Amino acid sequence: MPLDPQPPPQRWLAQGRGSPRLVLVVVFVALLLDNMLLTVVVPIVPTFLYTTEYEGANSSVAPAQTEPAPPALRAPHFSSLFSYFDNTTVTVLGSDSPLGVPNGTESSLQPPSSPPAPQRGCLEGDEFLTKENVRVGLLFASKALVQLLVNPSVGLLTNRIGYHIPMFIGFTIMFLSTVMFAFSGSYTLLFIARALQGVGSSFSSVAGLGMLASVYTDDFERGNAMGIALGGLALGVLIGAPFGSIMYEFVGKSSPFLVLAFLALLDGALQLCILQPSRISPESTKATPMSTLLRDPYILVAAGALCFSNMGVAMLEPTLPIWMMQTMCSPQWQLGMAFLPASISYLIGTNLFGILANKMGRWLCSMIGMAVVGVSLLCVPLAKNIYGLIGPNGGLGFAIGMVDSSMMPIMGYLVDLRHTSTYGTVYAIADVAFCMGFAIGPSTGGAIVRAIGFPWLMVIIGVTNLAYAPLCWCLRSPPAKEEKMAILSQECPLQTQSYSRQRPLREFPLTEDSDVEEENVE
């Protein structure tokens, strides 16, 4: 009896490499870690910069909790009356002047009546916090700006060498970026780490989504797979901000990034086992040039929906925590927890509408989603405390989940219908649209808040989403490329180059009678 040349683990890996489900697992984990790193910095950066730059410059002797103003009011008795403020009470310590105690006590109770609240979030230095909106916005936008520039090159690279090697390159860069975040102590180093993350994210997202589209050729299955993969994205967003705020407050700045670095190593091991990143596997068919795809109006409409719907939450990331610090007196842990309703509802939305969108119509699902995004953003400034943010943020996350889970499969469907079925380039365009939202949103959002205020920023982006929503009607029934050419040139559509999948079963029916004709031929 011949012995099996492969031991059981290697046999399992050989069988698993051909399984679309394991590919889906790899993409799910990659998107999860990418978006955990994307959002874990949201509650950390504003308070970290305030602690290191503002408090470091203004409290050289006294602790951060001690306000410099009250001692100045008691200048004549400075050596004998020195106040330390905690969260609830004001205590006057040590007095050498019996006549100065009553007056000093009476006067010290008035100015400190407001400082105890700032320690819990309403921090002093409003001018610094206003300027910090712009700096934090630019730091958050740097990742998307770099990703925006790298995406087209990654799309072309995947068409030439396949998806496996770019996917592993993305993991390597993401790991380096995570370690750099852990040990960065200045704004400049944080900016570089964020930009480096954009490069790694570009490789991971473009290669991952293209790989899914290539292994799930059926449109219905592809929609379900995209919904599950976007669930990984949603889970990363869900865990990232609360995880970062809690770890930063109770453990330290480096702790959340070191945990993510360890998880990234596990993801790299998973990719080595399943994807074989040393193997070059170029696309079997020549890809449609990106310039041609960018001239397709249907692809542009879908990309615009992705851009504007995600621009809303991108504007919230740098501005909402600072607005909460100024108006709600929120402690540090609440700055990340404010995004929890949006993350949970996004996770539900992507998984739910990955299936439902195919039944109700993806164009309708995305149109409703953009309308709900607009209404939710208009309701955000009405919140008076963190509990008032639950409804608007929950609706925002659910609606963005509707748009993303509808538009990602539409991108692959439009390429199948109107171009050649290679997916690296079209998902590079989808990722570019996504990144434009996360680049324009934070960079302009901080400047708009500084100029006209946070409520007007929400009005602008909310109305923009409401105005764009009707354009999703155009995606209701996009024509096949051959049909459009036949209408324009009045020539036989069969003489044009028809699209074909990488593993074609039959040609796409160009007319209503084509199925009958094919059966007669057989």
TrEMBL record:
It comes from the Eukaryota. This is VMAT1 protein. It comes from Xiphorhynchus elegans (elegant woodcreeper). Its main location: membrane. The chain crosses the membrane at residues 21-45, 169-193, 199-216, 228-251, 257-277, 298-316, 336-356, 363-383, 395-415, 427-448, 454-475. Keywords: Cytoplasmic vesicle, Glycoprotein, Membrane, Neurotransmitter transport, Synapse, Transmembrane, Transmembrane helix, Transport. Residues 510-522 have a biased composition (Acidic residues). It catalyses: serotonin(in) + 2 H(+)(out) = serotonin(out) + 2 H(+)(in); dopamine(in) + 2 H(+)(out) = dopamine(out) + 2 H(+)(in). SUPFAM superfamilies: MFS general substrate transporter. InterPro entries: MFS, MFS_dom, MFS_trans_sf, MFS_Vesicular_Transporter, Tet-R_TetA/multi-R_MdtG-like. It is found in: Cytoplasmic vesicle, Secretory vesicle, Synaptic vesicle membrane. Residues 23-480 form the Major facilitator superfamily (MFS) profile domain. Pfam families: MFS_1. GO terms for biological process: aminergic neurotransmitter loading into synaptic vesicle. It is a multi-pass membrane protein. Belongs to the major facilitator superfamily. Vesicular transporter family. NCBIfam families: 2_A_01_02.
